[in-house]
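REQUEST ID: PR-0412
SUBMITTED BY: lab tech R.K.
PRIORITY: routine
TASK: structure prediction, single protein chain
INPUT:
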Amino acid sequence: MKREEIKQIAKKGILTIDEIKLILNYLVYEVRKNLNINDASTRLCKESSMYLLYLCDDINIPYIPIANNELLMPSLEHHFGITGFNTSEGQLCFLLDLTYIQFTQKYYSVNNKNILSPGNFISDESKKELVSLGYLTLTEKNLEDYLNSFIESYRQIFNVNSKFIYDKLYKLFNKFNINIVNENKRFSLSL
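STATUS: complete
OUTPUT:
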């Protein structure tokens, strides 16, 4: 789809799941195409997140870029983001990480040390969705699966306190009014 068609869909306010998927697929396609993100050697997470911010702003949908070095430690930089859409059944939020493919290799280099990559510590379902789609529905389960993949990977060489990381994340979520809203443990983003 073309940008103008996507803008028209986004303007509707209340979207169907199919319309949300069209928007998300458009965003993923545009970023991956323009940044040439196509294999595990890609390390363009910051650029990907900033390009998503630009595209989301252009079509007037919210996007909150997050750097996991804000959550873990300064030397471990990886970027992802959160977006949300209104549906007739409430809000639906997504975690976007268009470069998670880089973590599907068995080993990953951090501070000149090869460690088991985060892709070894995430569920097969989440890994498949992140690699193929570039996003996950933002549920408590999916968020934990995603973050724990980094925590477990980095524990190989660092003392990582997962409670501290989750506390920082939820403080960041509070800052942007991202909340768990229902019994399905889905998140809501203040639009």
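NOTES: The mean pLDDT is 85.
REVIEWED BY: pending
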